[in-house]
Design a protein that fits this description.
The structure is a homodimer of 204-residue chains.
Chain A: H1 3-13, E1 15-21, E2 27-33, E3 36-38, E4 41-47, H2 51-59, E5 61-67, E6 72-82, H3 86-96, H4 100-103, E7 112-126, E8 133-139, E9 149-151, H5 160-164, E10 170-171, E11 177-178, H6 188-192, E12 198-200
Antiparallel strand pairs in A: 1-2, 1-5, 3-4, 4-7, 5-6, 6-7, 7-8, 9-12, 10-11
Keywords (chains A, B): Iron, Iron-sulfur, Metal-binding
GO molecular function (chains A, B): iron-sulfur cluster binding; metal ion binding
Protein name (chains A, B): 4Fe-4S ferredoxin-type domain-containing protein
Chain lengths: 204, 204
């Protein structure tokens, strides 16, 4: 699974959820069509009158998620840019998404502005598999984030974490190790470790 | 369409997108199951180790959206509460959502904490109809928000707004009026009004 495949999966899901932060710091989310995916970039559009438009312009940030019928979930958050050359992009978007003409017929399409995400973090999460499978990826100049938990050298090898893990994804060793690609990030191992050896990666 | 029906629709969609704001003010969104809907309240759960859990506790705010196969979209944002009596609620949630046992078998379910939304704003949006149909509702002690546009007394009755409206939802009159239930909030009428008579409701 690479970044391009993940973006393509969002394009196939099409009606994805787009989250922003409003002027009061409150999360807002709505379903928006993923209009185009090309060369590691995702394109969408919205109308200049909408709160969504204002939030994109004000914050420059968006988070997107969608899940397909096989319970494969994509999460993406990143920087959003309003594109210059509005008419070219809106025409291109309508060419690939002709049903948009029912909502914005004729010239009214030009109330829409095209946006693009070229930098961000992607998380692929397959809940249809047992154990679950996750993978982190990035697009553009974005460094991958530290998420989840890790077992430090304070591990005493008691194996309690391995017993309680709901996905059975902790392997024996010195120290024990978490198979990151199967971890739910639920935190049960960290709570139950008698030597407090399991830490959040971001706090290590 | 009332609030209870909207929440029930989210329960039927089941895999809805839940948006939060992280510690850096960045929007985050993921697919979460709507676990229960009872008496104008929506219930879900998440694990104590997850970033989602921390964001819920820190901000007390969440926004949810989902769309069904008939292109009916529900948007909800409101205050979120962690519920006391954790075991009672988690057991109840697992009773109604038995597939949760595959992800969190046995006692591992108690790494989950139950949350509830009892106060918030709902927006129902039917994109399957022409013209589109929207309705705002609230649950709990929440006042409904002002969204969209209104035509003020500065209207000179030229009818230009009515011609450009992509959904044909502006009616002749003195002043002209917007049929709010069919309005996209695209803002094209406001941009094109020669007498600047059309204002955002929140700025009026």
């Amino acid at each position: 699974m690479n970044a391009q495949t993940c973006l393509q999966l969002l394009r196939e899901i099409k009606d994805a959820a787009f989250a922003t932060v409003d002027e009061n710091g409150i999360p807002q989310v709505r379903i928006i069509d993923v209009m185009l995916v090309e060369e590691d970039a995702l394109y969408f559009c919205t109308a200049r009158g909408k709160d969504f438009f204002r939030q994109l312009i004000q914050t420059g940030q968006v988070a997107i998620t969608g899940m397909n019928r096989d319970f494969q979930m994509i999460r993406l958050h990143g920087k959003v840019q309003k594109l210059p050359d509005q008419k070219k992009w809106i025409d291109r978007i309508f060419q690939y998404n002709p049903s948009m003409n029912h909502v914005y017929p004729g010239e009214s399409r030009y109330i829409l502005e095209p946006f693009c995400i070229t930098t961000g973090q992607i998380e692929f999460f397959d809940l249809g598999k047992q154990p679950i499978y996750r993978q982190s990826l990035s697009i553009g100049q974005s460094c991958s984030e530290k998420k989840g938990f890790t077992i430090t050298d304070s591990c005493i090898g008691c194996g309690h974490c391995s017993i309680v893990c709901p996905q059975h994804c902790i392997c024996e060793g010195s120290p024990y190790t978490i198979e990151q690609s199967h971890c739910l990030h639920c935190g049960l191992c960290a709570e139950q470790c008698p030597s407090l050896a399991i830490k959040r990666k971001r706090e290590v």
